[in-house]
Design brief:
It is built from 9 helices and 5 strands. The protein has 212 residues and is α/β, with parallel strands linked by helices. It has a 5-stranded parallel beta sheet with strand order 2-3-1-4-5, sandwiched between helices. It is globular and about 45 Å long. The protein binds 3'-deoxy-3'-aminothymidine monophosphate. The site of 3'-deoxy-3'-aminothymidine monophosphate (NYM) has 9 residues, from α5.
Length: 212
């Protein structure tokens, strides 16, 4: 009998929402409950494409807006064979940002519509669960200054938040909104509950295709 597959779990949200901390804590919690789990993040800056993206984000290079959008998408596609292998081996993947960040960040730029931005990511492995760590711009500002990377301004982040809100209206994706203003432990409890549910359900379901 084929081994039961792992779940694809994505954390999304604007900067400072606590995604990376929560991804790490979730992987530990899943492992401690006896469920194999690993973390991934996008962009994955370790690949050749990822290095182009990283230089762009660090303002060390300039790339045309459509071009960098397609590079972010290519960076996901290049990891799809690895993701599928892990999921088939029964390993759940906890992913720090995915196609939703891709669409929200590019479509927040002038002249981009949601549909154009979604197209290159159509057909990616579909997450079993996408948790949106929701934090108001005012709360985010209390967590300190933004860093030096491209996109890290409160005006742009507000535009990104609105794009995420549009994406969350899509009922074909299993969105859960998490109140990221709670304590780290309370956020972790919410996230773990939703994730255990998703892991149990995914065991008996085929992996879907995003936005198809
Ligand atoms: N970003 C991330 C995009 O613009 N498009 C994408 O497809 C993805 C995955 O890159 N500001 C943006 C969001 C973030 C930045 O930051 C990556 P970090 O700190 O590595 O998550």
């Amino acid at each position: 009998m084929a081994c039961k597959r792992g779940a694809l779990i994505v954390l999304e949200g604007v900067d400072k929402a606590g995604k990376t901390t929560q991804c790490k804590k979730l992987v530990q919690a899943l492992q401690q409950s006896g469920r194999p789990a690993e973390m991934m993040r996008f962009p994955d800056r370790s690949t050749t494409i990822g290095q182009l993206i990283s230089a762009y984000l660090e303002n060390k290079s300039d790339l045309e807006d459509h071009t960098v959008h397609l590079l972010f998408s290519a960076n996901r596609w290049e990891l799809v064979p690895l993701m599928k292998r892990k999921l088939e081996q029964g390993i759940s993947l906890v992913v720090d940002r995915y196609a939703f960040s891709g669409v929200a960040f590019t479509s927040a730029k002038p002249g981009f519509c949601l549909d154009w931005c979604k197209n290159p990511d159509v057909g990616l492995p579909k997450p079993d669960l996408v948790m949106f760590l929701n934090l108001s711009p005012a709360e985010a500002a209390l967590r300190g200054q933004f860093g030096e990377e491209r996109y890290e301004t409160s005006v742009f982040q507000r535009a990104v938040q609105q794009k995420f809100e549009q994406l969350m209206k899509d009922p074909s994706v299993n969105w859960q909104v998490i109140d990221a203003a709670q304590s780290v432990d309370d956020v972790h409890k919410d996230i773990t509950n939703h994730s255990l549910n998703a892991v149990n359900k995914a065991l008996n379901l085929p992996l879907g295709e995003l936005w198809k």
